[in-house]
Amino acid sequence: MVLVSRRARPGHESALETTWEQLSAAAASFPGYLGGQLIRPSAQGETDDERLYHMLFAFDSEDHLRQWQQSPARALGLKALEPHVEGREVVRELSGLDHWFTPHQAQQQHPPPRWKVAVVSWLGIYPTVLVLFLTVAPWLGNWPLPLRVALITALVVLIMTWVVAPALTKALRGWLHAPSS
Q1: Quick check: 113 and 38 in contact, CB under 8 A?
Q2: How far apart are CA 96 and CA 165, in angstroms?
Q3: Residue ranges of domains in the chain
Q4: pLDDT at position 82
C-alpha cells in the first residue's frame, strides 16, 4: 500500500481530483490492484493545510505495486498531475496495520509484538464498527450488499487511521512498547 501526499495549487483542487480519478482508473487496470482512495483536505479547517490531499493505492503484493510504480501509465498520470500540485510529494509505503503502531522515533524503539498490535486493533475496530452499524448502516438498507460493505469498511479505515488508532497508540504507548519480560 502506498500513501502519497500532495498539495494542490490554489484553484486547482478540482483538476487535481479529476486527474487523480484518471490515475486511479489507470492503476485499476494493473494486476493485483485492490483499490484506491482520495482523502480530501478537511473542510472544517481542522488541519494546517486546506489544500493537502492524500492518495492511497493498494496492491495485493510488492511485485504488483512495483509494476504499477515503474509503469509508463503511472509516469503519464504523474506528469498530468504536476500542473495541479506544488511542493514535493511525500510517499509512504504502508503494510497492513503496522504503520499505525510504528513509533515516530522508529530508530530508537522496536515495533510492538504482533499480539499487542492485534489487541489494540480490535480495541479500536470493534467500537468503530459497532457505532457505524448503529448510525450509518440503517441508512444504507436499500443499497446492494457490496456497496454497503465498501462504504462501511472505507469509513472504518478512515476513522481508524486518523482518529482511533492514533489516540489508542498514544494512550497505550507505554504498554505497546514495554520491554519484553
Answers
A1: no
A2: 13
A3: 2-93, 98-176
A4: 93
